[in-house]
Amino acid sequence: MKRLIVLGGGESGVGTAILGKQKGYDVFVSDKGAMSKKYKEVLKHNEIDFEENQHTENKILNADVVMKSPGIPDKVALVQKLIENSIPVISEIEFAAQFTTASIIGITGSNGKTTTTLLVYHILKNAGLNVGVAGNIGDSFAQQVAEHSFDNYVLELSSFQLDGIEKFNSHIAVLTNITPDHLDRYEYDFNKYIDSKFRITKNQTASDFLIYDADDEAINKWLLENKTSAKLVPFSLEKKLEYGAYVEDNNIIINITKDRINMPISTLSTKGKHNTKNAMAATMAAQLLKVRKQNIKESLEDFEGAEHRLENVAKVREVEYINDSKATNVNATFYALECMEKTTVWIVGGVDKGNDYNDLLPLVREKVKAIVCLGLDNEKIKNTFGNVVDIIVETAGAEEAVKVSQKLAEKGEAVLLSPACASFDLFESYEDRGRQFKAAVRNL
Q1: Binding annotation
Q2: In sequence order, which residues have a C-beta less than 8 Å from that of residue 297 and are 6 or more positions away?
Q3: Binding site residues for ATP, as ranges?
Q4: Domain Mur ligase C-terminal: where (predicted)?
Q5: Is the pLDDT of residue 132 over 90?
Q6: 304 pLDDT above the threshold of 90
Q7: Residues 318-341: pLDDT tens digits?
Q8: pTM for the full model?
Q9: Which of 250, 253, 211 is nearest to 230 (CA)?
């Protein structure tokens, strides 16, 4: 019996443990921190052995294979020891993929991947395909492989998940964009992060597809210097493409099959240039899976978008409150500010992953009347925007940030939470930050 060790007792870890046990492995889960009650109950119910608040080395170093959850960096001593002992250390998606014959649509990118994943899933489900959605969303991929038999999976894949793949392949890979993010995990080397994202195409063959943003400098550079076997399927807002998706006279044109699609941008349910790109990528993925044009158009018109991504929370005394807590990097916040049509009070800050805020200066100058800081260390924000915005206030929680914003915003203006940072200094996660913000707005 092969021994499977799972490092990390969160969603991906517990899902892998369930699948491993089902496939006849001797499974042991080890978490260095405390595990949530919910996951401990699941492991007990499935009679899977686990430990928390420690890693007992002699129970781990006898593994045949180790699944490391994406949050654990490769440079951790225990992981290094496993590698030195030639024990394979893989990600959950690598482990789970060997137990399904489903067609996989894998979606990665610095921004837009959640929205694009949900949009592809929405289109395929509405078209009647037997499809699951997983990765960074909802139940883990491994657990779904254990409990369902879907013909298709739409997977949102982070660079950390892709770092742990060997044989995993997406029949259709989508690369939404690449901008500096998580550089703390890649030795502050942008090229290492770019290579990590492109692992999504490493096992693709000539019968597979790579859908990508042809306006993205980092993507174009990589494609010039490296080879992929996949068929390239580009989308662009800037140039007309012979093959792919582009924009002409405010219409999206998609020209990859005989069934050419022509759709007014105004009919899309989610607004903004980045959402036009997400819609192009999702539409091409659906077309490659033979979904009919009419089905695609209907789904694009009634799609609701992702929670915590430019989500309209409420209008209070004629001021709009918008929750974009999912914006954990500068590029995501750039999109949010670009979409703002009203004078804005901007709530920003948190754990900075090596941010350069200078890209935001023109948008901030044009649209932002006041900045409300929501983080423990706000020096960089104050230094960057101190000369551009007259009012910068520091706050220490969502409720305080919302109350201060209400005082600063006038009729016809907007309050935007778009932090450009991770949330772990004051909140459990970006979801927690977004929920606390929404609760505070509803209490005004």
Answers
A1: 109-115
A2: 261, 263, 267
A3: 109-115
A4: 308-421
A5: yes
A6: no
A7: 999 999 999 998 988 998 998 898
A8: 0.79
A9: 211
